[in-house]
Design goal:
By secondary structure, the chain is of the alpha/beta class. It is 21% helix and 35% strand. It has 2 domains: 6-233, 3-Layer(aba) Sandwich (Aminopeptidase); 250-327, OB fold (Dihydrolipoamide Acetyltransferase, E2P). This is Succinylglutamate desuccinylase/Aspartoacylase catalytic domain-containing protein.
Length: 330
């Protein structure tokens, strides 16, 4: 039996209970409290503490939907251990629908500034308060990301090479066959947990071209299914987990626009499909329709992310490409 009362900020849950609350950060000038919303689902039986973090980037709402679906899928009565839902870590960025808080230019990207600072810029203070509770309670953690406002990313995991992280990555389930190296993670929730020997990964799925109602719902289903698969793997809930038949490994390379114009990916390319070096990924045409540049596969590998906006300027991000070095089972 579980006899652990869990408290995170103002949220508290005894065994068999659900607690709602928040991690308070500060007060706005008008008196409103800036905080990180938290839900604790504390199971009746013993087990690990599993954190699901979302919304560290404000143009990536996939974590909110995932946490909502997970909350509806599980109850304390069926749970061994606890699930902590932090659907929006960076509320100012989410309210602005931007990657970071537009009013905090010195620590704009909150996923680069962990462990944060108690007396730092606002985003640093948010990161610091979140970190305190995370390292105090978490055994396993996933941070949910996507392509945000300008791109789409397919089912991809970033993880360190240690056995704990790789076990967690595999536990995401059969739909997650690409796990890229996070060799020296720094500045993120994954990094601070890895430093203390806990299992943590960053997962990517979704973005601008998948925010229409049906497509967005499908992204939430895939992510929530992965979260439930993790719980099955770690014996937090009943059921048989699934695993990928093959897990590719390698490292990412960003492909940037060599010219300005209109970005046109090849219509027959697919995510996670093996490509050969110099295979054509996309063309850039000018406003008269003339092809002025090509994006080619830099090495053997696969595409896991593409720009969602056709208009492009020299140096803009166009494609995230995975250079494949084999599989994790090799």
């Amino acid at each position: 039996m579980n006899d652990r009362i869990i408290q995170i900020g103002s949220a508290q849950a005894s065994p068999g209970e659900v607690g709602e609350g928040a991690i308070e950060i500060t007060k706005h000038a008008g008196g409103n409290i800036l905080s990180i919303p938290i839900t604790i689902i504390n199971g009746k039986n013993d087990g690990p503490c599993f954190w699901i973090n979302g919304g560290i980037h404000g143009d990536e709402p996939e974590g909110i939907l995932t946490c909502s679906m997970v909350r509806q899928a599980i109850t304390p009565s069926i749970l061994s251990g606890s699930v902590i839902l932090a659907p929006v870590m960076n509320v100012p960025a989410m309210e602005a629908a931007e990657r970071g808080n537009p009013l905090d230019t010195f620590s704009y990207d909150m996923n680069r500034i962990y462990p944060g600072k108690e007396n730092g810029y606002l985003s640093e203070r948010i990161a610091n308060e979140h970190r305190k509770w995370l390292i105090k309670t978490a055994d396993i953690e996933i941070s949910i990301h996507s392509g945000g406002s300008h791109s789409y990313l397919s089912e991809t995991i970033f993880a360190t090479k240690d056995s704990q992280a790789q076990e967690l990555a595999r536990a995401m389930g059969e739909e997650w066959d690409l796990t890229l190296y996070a060799n020296r993670p720094s500045g993120s929730p994954m990094a601070i947990l890895t430093e203390i020997g806990k299992a943590a990964i960053t997962v990517e799925l979704g973005g601008r071209s998948s925010t229409a109602p049906g497509a967005f719902h499908r992204v939430g289903e895939v992510l929530s299914r992965a979260a439930l698969n993790i719980m099955k793997h770690y014996k937090m809930i009943e059921g048989e987990p699934t695993y990928p038949n093959k897990r590719y490994k390698g490292f990412q390379q960003a492909l940037l626009a060599p010219e300005s114009g209109v970005f046109l990916p090849e219509t027959n390319i697919k995510f996670h499909q093996i490509m050969k070096k110099n295979d054509l990924i996309a063309k850039i045409i000018n406003y008269k329709g003339k092809s002025i540049a090509e994006l080619l596969a830099p090495e053997d590998g696969m595409i896991f992310g593409l720009r969602a906006l056709p208009n492009v300027t020299t140096g803009d991000w166009c494609c995230f490409y995975a250079i494949i070095e084999g599989t994790w089972d090799d």
